[in-house]
């Protein structure tokens, strides 16, 4: 049970003061009855709430898939750069979602956002072994020795030894390579630092899969959509 004014405010219908005025005008009905008290306790998942003739669809959590563009930071706030939250419509931003893990500023591709803290923890904790798959372009030839090094666990510049990672070579020659990298961690600049450890440089990086979900290729960079119930279940599974 929650206060009626809190429910409506959280859904973006106005401030507590504005909601109080709307209720005072008799524009809000709960299960067919006109609400007269803004502090009325309501179960939003069981009661029918109608505001100004429109039935509201209540949801506690929001789950979004974004095709993150380059130049945007994976944060809820930044003093200098545009954030992924700046790309959201107000009706979605009102839920205060946060990025599930991070993508570097210049990395593009699949980014999940939610306000479901429990699911977020499960998806980013290495102990749950959630796969994150990246497509990368490398400035040099990637060979079998690199594949074996990734499988054994790359040691980064700060001495941290990464968990075993899968490196799949799509194409490789003296001019550069295209690869898939599958990780179950999310260290700072991890993919880039892993390749630096084998004397190579990532020139393009795109996340294409996370937790069994593939990037919706119909999403242009900077676009996003809500996840379906089936997709949410995949992540929870």
From TrEMBL:
The UniProt entry, under InterPro entries, shows: PsdUridine_s_RsuA/RluB/E/F_cat, PsdUridine_synth_cat_dom_sf, PsdUridine_synth_RsuA/RluA, PsdUridine_synth_RsuA/RluB/E/F, PsdUridine_synth_RsuA/RluB_CS, RsuA_PseudoU_synthase, S4_RNA-bd, S4_RNA-bd_sf
A Pfam family of this chain:
S4
EC number(s) in its UniProt entry? 5.4.99.-
* Superkingdom of this protein's organism: Bacteria
State the Gene Ontology BP annotations: enzyme-directed rRNA pseudouridine synthesis
Q: Which GO terms describe its cellular component?
A: cytosol
Please give the CDD domains that the UniProt record associates with this protein. PseudoU_synth_RsuA (cd02553), S4 (cd00165)
Can you tell me which family this protein belongs to? Answer: Belongs to the pseudouridine synthase RsuA family.
* Name this polypeptide is given: Pseudouridine synthase
């Amino acid at each position: 049970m929650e206060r009626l004014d809190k429910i409506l405010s959280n859904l973006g219908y106005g401030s507590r003061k504005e909601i109080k005025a709307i209720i005072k005008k008799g524009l809000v009905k709960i299960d067919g009855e006109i609400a007269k008290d803004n502090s009325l306790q309501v179960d939003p998942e069981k009661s029918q709430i109608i505001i100004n003739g429109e039935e509201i669809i209540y949801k506690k959590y929001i789950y979004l898939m974004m095709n993150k563009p380059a130049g945007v930071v994976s944060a809820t706030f930044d003093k200098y750069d545009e954030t992924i939250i700046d790309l959201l419509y107000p009706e979605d931003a009102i839920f205060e979602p946060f990025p599930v893990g991070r993508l570097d500023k210049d990395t593009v591709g699949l980014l999940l956002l939610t306000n479901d803290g429990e699911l977020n923890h499960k998806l980013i904790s290495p102990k749950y072994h959630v796969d994150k798959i990246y497509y990368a372009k490398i400035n040099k030839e990637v060979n079998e020795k690199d594949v074996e090094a990734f499988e054994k666990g790359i040691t980064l510049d700060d001495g941290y030894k990464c968990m075993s990672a899968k490196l799949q070579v799509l194409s490789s020659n003296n001019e550069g390579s295209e690869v898939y990298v599958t990780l179950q961690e999310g260290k700072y600049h991890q993919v880039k630092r892993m390749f630096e450890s084998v004397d190579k440089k990532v020139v393009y990086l795109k996340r294409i899969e996370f937790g069994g979900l593939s990037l919706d290729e119909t999403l242009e960079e900077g676009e996003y959509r809500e996840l379906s119930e089936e997709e949410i279940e995949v992540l929870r599974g």
